User: What shape does this take?
Amino acid sequence: MAVTKDMKIISKDFSLRWWWYGLVEDLHLACEKELHDLEEPIRRNVHGLIAPNNDLPHGWICRTKDPLLREDNNIFFCDQYKCLYDSPQHRGIRSRYNGKIFQRRFSFFQPIILTLSGLLGAISLVMQCIK
Assistant: This one.
């Protein structure tokens, strides 16, 4: 049997962590796009990354002004979506997508549990037949 390049890549680079995050990669990208679309009007009106707090809508906070997120004028984002601002709308979008991510990951537990219980049942049957 010939091993193709694709088969090598799959077997060589496969990891449980890669699979776990790959399940919901499309949801992460959709959430990031929606968050960036929410911030886009503010980014267009501001020249640079930092907006004065009085120029922001009510409830919005500029994350880049937080001294815990800045170090030597480099901006560190504290979430995976790379948002510059935080607001109730941001938290709403994140929580909605976190719910979808949880549901998708949770839906994979049932087939795994059924498969494992079937394998254990088969092993149990074989062990009973051997005795």
Notes: Residues 25-108 form one domain. Helices lie at 5-13, 16-22, 25-45, 88-107, 109-130. Confidence is low (pLDDT under 50) at residues 1-9.
